Amino acid sequence: GSIAGGSGTDTFVLTGTGSGSFDLSSQSGFEILDVTGGDWTLSGNGVFETVNLVSGSLTLAAGATLDATSTASTDVALGTTYNVSGTHTESGTTTVAGALNILSGGLYTTSGATVIDGGTLSIADGSTFTSTDASGIAGSAGVDTLILAGTLTLATPSGSFAVDLGDGSDVFSLSATGSINQALTLGAGDDTFDLTTGVTLSQVVDGGADTDTLNLTGSGTGFLDLTNITSFEVLGKSGTGTWTLEGATTFESLTVSGGTLVLDTGASLTLTGSAGTTVDSGATYNVAGTHVH
Fold it and tell me: Is this model's pTM higher than 0.85 or not?
């Protein structure tokens, strides 16, 4: 059978303990979807104005659609998880204090603001997060984490950056299958940018204020144009892979703890701090360009 909310503002609640499943197509006329307990999997097609994850987890299965079509919101509270393998369409604000995981095959499209409020936004290989809102993705004063292995497509920002993770010790991780089409700043705080071999970075990533670290990781080979890296203080190279640096930028210190780092012909790396350069045993640093300290 089916359940109809009727007139007014109606709330559909998924709760309990353990696992549960629900076909969104079996309900209509509800404006609010609340998840207050349990681990729920949604199939079918549903339309709500507001989606609230208060406790537990929610999984939008492959092939399912959830439309949050008003200017209300989707809220992923601290300690909750929302996994999207289907299609979520959002018109209001998305706030992530817990974990929002866009899984392989998943599509999250929003025309509203997106705020990582001390939580984690993870975009897996084979998934897409698209925002047409000029405010892009904003962070908070907490520890905000953005993990990008899929496609992040953002509108042209109203300012310099489409992603501004704000204050706090934030983390941005970009792997070989990940892509972003606009510039990003980690904002104030001691932030970390993890970059894996095989990635193509064509946009500026800015460390912001305080002491920020760029970690070059992975196996295989990687190439990085240093002109896309601004306001980072610490450069680290780890893993067994080989990274080749092109272009020019400035850090305070460099540590090569594994694999090989190559400063290519014509490239320029300037170190301004007292820590200088450290090459650990078993690691290699080849300089064909200009290294200044």
Answer: yes
Alpha carbon 232 to chain centroid, angstroms: 19
Burial 216-232 (b: 16+ CB within 10 A, else e): bbbeeebbbebebbbbb
Would you give the distance in Å from CA 117 to the centre of its chain? 12
Backbone angles phi, psi at 276, to 5 degrees: 70, -140
Least Cα distance to 255 among 292, 220, 213, 211 occurs for 213
Q: Please list the residues that pair with 172 across neighbouring strands.
A: 146, 193
The one-letter amino acid code at 2 reads S
What pLDDT does residue 99 have? 98
- Asked if residue 176 lies in contact with residue 196, where contact means CB atoms within 8 angstroms, the answer is yes
Per-residue pLDDT at 247: 98
What CA dihedral angle connects 136, 139, 145 and 149, to 10 degrees?
Answer: 10
As a whole number, mean pLDDT of residues 88-117 equals 97
- For 148-187, how does the pLDDT look when each residue is reduced to its tens digit (9 = 90+)? 999 999 999 989 999 999 999 999 999 999 999 999 999 9
